[in-house]
Amino acid sequence: MGHCPQQLNAALLFAAGFIMRPIGGWLFGHFADSYGRRKALTVSVLMMCGGSLIIAVTPTYASIGIAAPILLGFARIIQGLSLGGEYGTSATYLSEIAHDKHRGFYASFQYVTLIGGQLSAIVVLLLLQKWILSAEELRTWGWRIPFFIGAALAVFAAVMRKSMHETDAYRKKSLAGRSRSSLGAIFKYPREVFLVVGITIGGTAAFYTYTVYMQKFLKLSVKLTDDQTTMVTAGSLLVAMLLQPFYGWLSDLVGRKRLLIGFGVAGTLFTVPLMTKLQTATGPLQAFLLIAAAWLIVSAYTSISGVVKAELFPTNVRATGVGLPYALTVSIFGGTSEMLALWLKSIGHEGWFYYYLTGCIAISLIVYIFMRDTLKSSAMDRHE
To answer: Which residues form the Major facilitator superfamily (MFS) profile domain (predicted)?
Structure first.
Protein backbone atom coordinates (compact mmCIF):
# COMPACT_ATOMS: atom_id res chain seq x y z
CA MET A 1 0.00 0.00 0.00
CA GLY A 2 3.05 2.28 0.28
CA HIS A 3 2.94 3.03 -3.43
CA CYS A 4 -0.62 4.37 -3.27
CA PRO A 5 0.13 8.05 -2.45
CA GLN A 6 2.64 8.25 -5.33
CA GLN A 7 0.22 6.53 -7.69
CA LEU A 8 -2.55 8.83 -6.47
CA ASN A 9 -0.49 11.93 -7.32
CA ALA A 10 0.07 10.58 -10.83
CA ALA A 11 -3.66 9.92 -11.12
CA LEU A 12 -4.38 13.52 -10.09
CA LEU A 13 -2.13 14.82 -12.89
CA PHE A 14 -3.85 12.43 -15.29
CA ALA A 15 -7.27 13.64 -14.17
CA ALA A 16 -6.23 17.28 -14.66
CA GLY A 17 -6.29 16.78 -18.42
CA PHE A 18 -9.87 15.58 -18.22
CA ILE A 19 -10.99 18.94 -16.85
CA MET A 20 -10.32 20.45 -20.28
CA ARG A 21 -12.17 17.76 -22.21
CA PRO A 22 -15.64 19.35 -22.08
CA ILE A 23 -14.18 22.62 -23.37
CA GLY A 24 -12.45 20.70 -26.14
CA GLY A 25 -15.66 18.83 -26.97
CA TRP A 26 -17.54 22.12 -27.19
CA LEU A 27 -14.95 24.09 -29.19
CA PHE A 28 -13.99 21.33 -31.62
CA GLY A 29 -17.59 20.21 -31.98
CA HIS A 30 -18.59 23.73 -32.99
CA PHE A 31 -15.57 23.93 -35.31
CA ALA A 32 -16.45 20.60 -36.96
CA ASP A 33 -20.13 21.52 -37.34
CA SER A 34 -19.30 24.96 -38.76
CA TYR A 35 -16.14 24.42 -40.81
CA GLY A 36 -15.96 20.70 -41.49
CA ARG A 37 -15.07 17.41 -39.85
CA ARG A 38 -11.78 17.04 -41.74
CA LYS A 39 -10.39 20.40 -40.60
CA ALA A 40 -11.34 19.75 -36.98
CA LEU A 41 -9.70 16.32 -37.01
CA THR A 42 -6.49 17.78 -38.45
CA VAL A 43 -6.27 20.55 -35.85
CA SER A 44 -7.01 18.19 -32.95
CA VAL A 45 -4.23 15.77 -33.86
CA LEU A 46 -1.74 18.63 -34.27
CA MET A 47 -2.60 19.79 -30.75
CA MET A 48 -2.03 16.26 -29.49
CA CYS A 49 1.37 16.37 -31.18
CA GLY A 50 2.19 19.59 -29.35
CA GLY A 51 1.17 18.17 -25.98
CA SER A 52 3.25 15.01 -26.44
CA LEU A 53 6.26 17.03 -27.58
CA ILE A 54 6.12 19.30 -24.54
CA ILE A 55 6.09 16.26 -22.23
CA ALA A 56 8.99 14.73 -24.16
CA VAL A 57 11.27 17.79 -23.91
CA THR A 58 10.35 19.21 -20.49
CA PRO A 59 13.42 19.21 -18.19
CA THR A 60 13.27 17.58 -14.77
CA TYR A 61 12.23 19.28 -11.54
CA ALA A 62 15.88 19.24 -10.45
CA SER A 63 16.78 21.31 -13.52
CA ILE A 64 14.02 23.93 -13.67
CA GLY A 65 12.13 23.54 -10.39
CA ILE A 66 8.44 24.32 -10.23
CA ALA A 67 8.37 25.11 -13.95
CA ALA A 68 8.59 21.36 -14.71
CA PRO A 69 5.19 20.36 -13.25
CA ILE A 70 3.67 23.56 -14.64
CA LEU A 71 4.81 22.61 -18.15
CA LEU A 72 3.52 19.07 -17.69
CA GLY A 73 0.19 20.44 -16.52
CA PHE A 74 0.07 22.73 -19.56
CA ALA A 75 0.78 19.76 -21.83
CA ARG A 76 -2.03 17.80 -20.20
CA ILE A 77 -4.37 20.76 -20.78
CA ILE A 78 -3.49 20.80 -24.49
CA GLN A 79 -3.99 17.04 -24.69
CA GLY A 80 -7.28 17.34 -22.81
CA LEU A 81 -8.58 19.92 -25.28
CA SER A 82 -7.48 17.74 -28.19
CA LEU A 83 -8.96 14.52 -26.83
CA GLY A 84 -12.16 16.30 -25.87
CA GLY A 85 -12.64 17.36 -29.47
CA GLU A 86 -11.32 14.19 -31.06
CA TYR A 87 -14.04 11.81 -29.89
CA GLY A 88 -17.10 13.67 -31.13
CA THR A 89 -15.50 14.67 -34.41
CA SER A 90 -14.10 11.24 -35.25
CA ALA A 91 -17.34 9.49 -34.23
CA THR A 92 -19.24 11.87 -36.48
CA TYR A 93 -16.83 11.45 -39.39
CA LEU A 94 -16.75 7.64 -39.28
CA SER A 95 -20.53 7.43 -38.94
CA GLU A 96 -21.16 9.84 -41.81
CA ILE A 97 -18.77 8.25 -44.32
CA ALA A 98 -20.17 4.75 -43.77
CA HIS A 99 -23.04 3.19 -45.69
CA ASP A 100 -26.14 3.12 -43.50
CA LYS A 101 -26.08 -0.71 -43.47
CA HIS A 102 -22.51 -0.81 -42.14
CA ARG A 103 -22.28 2.18 -39.79
CA GLY A 104 -21.72 0.10 -36.69
CA PHE A 105 -18.85 -1.81 -38.29
CA TYR A 106 -17.06 1.26 -39.63
CA ALA A 107 -17.61 3.36 -36.51
CA SER A 108 -16.16 0.57 -34.34
CA PHE A 109 -12.73 1.37 -35.75
CA GLN A 110 -12.69 4.49 -33.59
CA TYR A 111 -11.99 2.25 -30.60
CA VAL A 112 -9.80 -0.07 -32.66
CA THR A 113 -7.41 2.85 -33.19
CA LEU A 114 -7.81 4.12 -29.62
CA ILE A 115 -7.06 0.75 -28.04
CA GLY A 116 -4.44 0.06 -30.71
CA GLY A 117 -2.64 3.25 -29.69
CA GLN A 118 -2.53 2.11 -26.08
CA LEU A 119 -1.31 -1.32 -27.16
CA SER A 120 1.41 0.22 -29.34
CA ALA A 121 2.62 2.34 -26.42
CA ILE A 122 2.90 -0.77 -24.25
CA VAL A 123 4.81 -2.64 -26.97
CA VAL A 124 7.25 0.27 -27.33
CA LEU A 125 7.73 0.34 -23.56
CA LEU A 126 8.29 -3.42 -23.51
CA LEU A 127 10.93 -3.16 -26.23
CA LEU A 128 12.69 -0.39 -24.33
CA GLN A 129 12.55 -2.33 -21.06
CA LYS A 130 13.70 -5.66 -22.41
CA TRP A 131 16.13 -5.08 -25.24
CA ILE A 132 17.20 -1.46 -25.60
CA LEU A 133 17.62 0.39 -22.29
CA SER A 134 18.63 -0.46 -18.76
CA ALA A 135 16.21 0.19 -15.91
CA GLU A 136 18.19 3.27 -14.89
CA GLU A 137 18.28 4.67 -18.44
CA LEU A 138 14.56 4.13 -18.79
CA ARG A 139 13.88 5.88 -15.49
CA THR A 140 16.10 8.90 -16.14
CA TRP A 141 15.46 9.68 -19.82
CA GLY A 142 14.14 6.67 -21.73
CA TRP A 143 10.54 7.30 -20.66
CA ARG A 144 10.56 10.31 -23.01
CA ILE A 145 10.99 8.16 -26.13
CA PRO A 146 7.32 7.05 -26.41
CA PHE A 147 6.25 10.71 -26.30
CA PHE A 148 8.63 11.58 -29.14
CA ILE A 149 7.23 8.64 -31.11
CA GLY A 150 3.68 9.75 -30.30
CA ALA A 151 4.42 13.27 -31.54
CA ALA A 152 5.91 11.92 -34.78
CA LEU A 153 2.89 9.67 -35.37
CA ALA A 154 0.58 12.62 -34.72
CA VAL A 155 2.32 14.60 -37.47
CA PHE A 156 1.89 11.64 -39.82
CA ALA A 157 -1.80 11.39 -38.87
CA ALA A 158 -2.25 15.12 -39.51
CA VAL A 159 -0.82 14.75 -43.02
CA MET A 160 -3.12 11.80 -43.68
CA ARG A 161 -6.17 13.62 -42.34
CA LYS A 162 -5.46 16.64 -44.49
CA SER A 163 -5.92 14.43 -47.56
CA MET A 164 -9.24 12.94 -46.37
CA HIS A 165 -12.48 13.83 -48.11
CA GLU A 166 -15.15 15.79 -46.28
CA THR A 167 -18.31 13.81 -45.55
CA ASP A 168 -21.28 14.03 -47.92
CA ALA A 169 -23.59 14.93 -45.03
CA TYR A 170 -21.56 18.01 -44.13
CA ARG A 171 -21.03 19.02 -47.77
CA LYS A 172 -24.79 18.94 -48.41
CA LYS A 173 -25.35 21.22 -45.44
CA SER A 174 -22.60 23.52 -46.63
CA LEU A 175 -23.99 23.72 -50.17
CA ALA A 176 -27.41 24.49 -48.73
CA GLY A 177 -25.89 27.48 -46.96
CA ARG A 178 -26.60 26.07 -43.49
CA SER A 179 -23.16 24.84 -42.48
CA ARG A 180 -22.49 27.35 -39.71
CA SER A 181 -23.62 26.08 -36.34
CA SER A 182 -24.48 28.27 -33.39
CA LEU A 183 -22.74 27.37 -30.15
CA GLY A 184 -26.17 27.33 -28.52
CA ALA A 185 -27.78 25.10 -31.15
CA ILE A 186 -27.12 21.98 -29.08
CA PHE A 187 -29.55 23.19 -26.41
CA LYS A 188 -32.39 22.61 -28.85
CA TYR A 189 -31.81 18.90 -28.26
CA PRO A 190 -31.88 18.45 -24.45
CA ARG A 191 -33.26 14.91 -24.60
CA GLU A 192 -30.47 13.76 -26.89
CA VAL A 193 -27.83 15.50 -24.77
CA PHE A 194 -29.01 13.73 -21.62
CA LEU A 195 -29.16 10.45 -23.52
CA VAL A 196 -25.47 10.80 -24.43
CA VAL A 197 -24.67 11.36 -20.76
CA GLY A 198 -26.69 8.34 -19.66
CA ILE A 199 -25.29 6.10 -22.40
CA THR A 200 -21.73 7.07 -21.46
CA ILE A 201 -21.65 6.88 -17.64
CA GLY A 202 -21.23 3.12 -17.24
CA GLY A 203 -19.19 2.58 -20.38
CA THR A 204 -16.57 5.22 -19.69
CA ALA A 205 -16.14 4.15 -16.06
CA ALA A 206 -15.61 0.55 -17.22
CA PHE A 207 -13.30 1.50 -20.11
CA TYR A 208 -10.92 3.52 -17.94
CA THR A 209 -11.02 0.86 -15.24
CA TYR A 210 -9.88 -1.88 -17.62
CA THR A 211 -7.31 0.27 -19.43
CA VAL A 212 -5.68 3.02 -17.39
CA TYR A 213 -6.33 1.75 -13.87
CA MET A 214 -5.86 -1.93 -14.64
CA GLN A 215 -2.07 -1.68 -14.97
CA LYS A 216 -1.78 -0.27 -11.46
CA PHE A 217 -4.37 -2.75 -10.16
CA LEU A 218 -2.35 -5.69 -11.47
CA LYS A 219 0.78 -4.44 -9.72
CA LEU A 220 -0.64 -3.15 -6.45
CA SER A 221 -3.50 -5.58 -5.82
CA VAL A 222 -2.81 -8.73 -7.85
CA LYS A 223 0.92 -8.40 -7.07
CA LEU A 224 2.13 -9.25 -10.55
CA THR A 225 5.66 -8.26 -11.55
CA ASP A 226 6.23 -5.39 -13.97
CA ASP A 227 6.89 -7.83 -16.82
CA GLN A 228 3.79 -9.88 -16.04
CA THR A 229 1.67 -6.73 -15.80
CA THR A 230 2.91 -5.52 -19.17
CA MET A 231 2.24 -8.85 -20.88
CA VAL A 232 -1.23 -9.29 -19.34
CA THR A 233 -2.19 -5.72 -20.24
CA ALA A 234 -0.92 -6.07 -23.80
CA GLY A 235 -2.73 -9.38 -24.30
CA SER A 236 -6.02 -8.10 -22.93
CA LEU A 237 -5.85 -4.94 -25.06
CA LEU A 238 -5.26 -7.09 -28.14
CA VAL A 239 -8.41 -9.07 -27.31
CA ALA A 240 -10.33 -5.82 -26.81
CA MET A 241 -9.11 -4.40 -30.12
CA LEU A 242 -10.15 -7.51 -32.05
CA LEU A 243 -13.61 -7.53 -30.46
CA GLN A 244 -14.54 -4.01 -31.62
CA PRO A 245 -15.27 -4.69 -35.32
CA PHE A 246 -17.08 -7.93 -34.48
CA TYR A 247 -19.50 -6.19 -32.13
CA GLY A 248 -19.83 -3.27 -34.55
CA TRP A 249 -20.78 -5.71 -37.31
CA LEU A 250 -23.19 -7.48 -34.96
CA SER A 251 -24.92 -4.19 -34.12
CA ASP A 252 -25.64 -3.67 -37.83
CA LEU A 253 -27.53 -6.98 -37.77
CA VAL A 254 -29.34 -7.04 -34.42
CA GLY A 255 -29.43 -3.36 -33.46
CA ARG A 256 -27.50 -1.07 -31.14
CA LYS A 257 -29.95 -1.34 -28.25
CA ARG A 258 -29.56 -5.09 -27.78
CA LEU A 259 -25.79 -4.78 -27.49
CA LEU A 260 -26.02 -1.92 -25.02
CA ILE A 261 -28.52 -3.81 -22.87
CA GLY A 262 -26.23 -6.84 -23.03
CA PHE A 263 -23.36 -4.72 -21.72
CA GLY A 264 -25.57 -3.21 -19.04
CA VAL A 265 -26.97 -6.51 -17.76
CA ALA A 266 -23.67 -8.41 -17.85
CA GLY A 267 -21.74 -5.48 -16.39
CA THR A 268 -24.19 -5.09 -13.53
CA LEU A 269 -24.20 -8.81 -12.73
CA PHE A 270 -20.54 -9.71 -13.20
CA THR A 271 -18.38 -6.66 -12.40
CA VAL A 272 -18.10 -7.39 -8.67
CA PRO A 273 -17.43 -11.15 -9.12
CA LEU A 274 -14.87 -10.50 -11.88
CA MET A 275 -12.97 -7.81 -9.99
CA THR A 276 -13.07 -9.77 -6.73
CA LYS A 277 -11.71 -12.89 -8.43
CA LEU A 278 -9.11 -10.84 -10.29
CA GLN A 279 -7.84 -9.37 -7.03
CA THR A 280 -6.99 -12.89 -5.84
CA ALA A 281 -5.76 -14.22 -9.21
CA THR A 282 -3.07 -16.87 -8.77
CA GLY A 283 -0.98 -15.85 -11.75
CA PRO A 284 -0.77 -13.90 -15.01
CA LEU A 285 -2.76 -16.44 -17.06
CA GLN A 286 -5.75 -16.33 -14.74
CA ALA A 287 -5.54 -12.53 -14.62
CA PHE A 288 -5.48 -12.34 -18.41
CA LEU A 289 -8.51 -14.63 -18.79
CA LEU A 290 -10.53 -12.61 -16.28
CA ILE A 291 -9.71 -9.28 -17.96
CA ALA A 292 -10.47 -10.80 -21.38
CA ALA A 293 -13.85 -11.88 -20.00
CA ALA A 294 -14.45 -8.32 -18.84
CA TRP A 295 -13.66 -7.05 -22.34
CA LEU A 296 -16.25 -9.43 -23.79
CA ILE A 297 -18.74 -7.38 -21.78
CA VAL A 298 -17.33 -3.86 -22.14
CA SER A 299 -16.76 -4.13 -25.90
CA ALA A 300 -20.52 -4.30 -26.44
CA TYR A 301 -20.47 -0.64 -25.39
CA THR A 302 -17.17 0.67 -26.75
CA SER A 303 -17.63 -0.75 -30.26
CA ILE A 304 -20.84 1.20 -30.90
CA SER A 305 -20.42 4.07 -28.48
CA GLY A 306 -19.69 6.61 -31.21
CA VAL A 307 -22.27 5.57 -33.78
CA VAL A 308 -25.15 5.42 -31.28
CA LYS A 309 -24.51 9.00 -30.23
CA ALA A 310 -23.95 10.24 -33.79
CA GLU A 311 -27.29 8.73 -34.83
CA LEU A 312 -29.09 10.86 -32.23
CA PHE A 313 -28.32 14.28 -33.76
CA PRO A 314 -28.90 16.10 -37.07
CA THR A 315 -25.89 17.08 -39.19
CA ASN A 316 -25.65 20.72 -38.11
CA VAL A 317 -25.01 19.89 -34.42
CA ARG A 318 -23.81 16.29 -34.63
CA ALA A 319 -20.16 16.75 -33.65
CA THR A 320 -21.06 19.10 -30.80
CA GLY A 321 -23.95 16.93 -29.67
CA VAL A 322 -21.72 13.88 -29.47
CA GLY A 323 -18.55 15.56 -28.21
CA LEU A 324 -19.63 17.97 -25.47
CA PRO A 325 -21.89 15.77 -23.26
CA TYR A 326 -19.57 12.80 -23.84
CA ALA A 327 -16.49 14.77 -22.76
CA LEU A 328 -18.28 16.14 -19.71
CA THR A 329 -19.34 12.65 -18.65
CA VAL A 330 -15.88 11.20 -19.23
CA SER A 331 -14.35 13.97 -17.11
CA ILE A 332 -16.64 13.11 -14.20
CA PHE A 333 -16.87 9.31 -14.41
CA GLY A 334 -13.93 8.23 -16.58
CA GLY A 335 -11.06 10.50 -15.64
CA THR A 336 -11.75 10.11 -11.93
CA SER A 337 -12.14 6.31 -11.89
CA GLU A 338 -8.46 5.59 -11.32
CA MET A 339 -8.15 8.32 -8.69
CA LEU A 340 -11.22 7.06 -6.82
CA ALA A 341 -10.07 3.44 -6.96
CA LEU A 342 -6.60 4.30 -5.63
CA TRP A 343 -8.05 6.47 -2.87
CA LEU A 344 -10.42 3.71 -1.75
CA LYS A 345 -7.50 1.28 -1.75
CA SER A 346 -5.42 3.71 0.33
CA ILE A 347 -8.10 3.80 3.05
CA GLY A 348 -8.54 0.02 3.03
CA HIS A 349 -11.81 -0.26 1.11
CA GLU A 350 -10.72 -1.29 -2.37
CA GLY A 351 -13.80 -3.45 -2.88
CA TRP A 352 -16.09 -0.43 -2.65
CA PHE A 353 -14.87 0.66 -6.07
CA TYR A 354 -16.26 -2.54 -7.62
CA TYR A 355 -19.73 -1.60 -6.38
CA TYR A 356 -19.28 1.98 -7.57
CA LEU A 357 -18.45 0.70 -11.06
CA THR A 358 -21.45 -1.63 -10.94
CA GLY A 359 -23.68 1.29 -9.97
CA CYS A 360 -22.44 3.37 -12.91
CA ILE A 361 -23.22 0.54 -15.32
CA ALA A 362 -26.64 0.00 -13.74
CA ILE A 363 -27.51 3.67 -14.28
CA SER A 364 -26.66 3.34 -17.96
CA LEU A 365 -28.65 0.10 -18.18
CA ILE A 366 -31.80 1.99 -17.24
CA VAL A 367 -31.11 4.42 -20.09
CA TYR A 368 -30.48 1.57 -22.54
CA ILE A 369 -33.78 -0.08 -21.68
CA PHE A 370 -35.87 3.01 -22.33
CA MET A 371 -34.01 4.58 -25.26
CA ARG A 372 -34.95 3.93 -28.88
CA ASP A 373 -32.79 1.72 -31.07
CA THR A 374 -30.86 4.21 -33.19
CA LEU A 375 -30.31 1.59 -35.89
CA LYS A 376 -34.04 1.72 -36.60
CA SER A 377 -34.58 5.40 -35.79
CA SER A 378 -31.50 7.38 -36.76
CA ALA A 379 -31.37 11.14 -37.29
CA MET A 380 -28.81 10.39 -40.00
CA ASP A 381 -31.48 8.71 -42.14
CA ARG A 382 -34.05 11.47 -41.88
CA HIS A 383 -34.54 14.30 -44.33
CA GLU A 384 -32.89 17.32 -42.70
So the answer is: 1-376
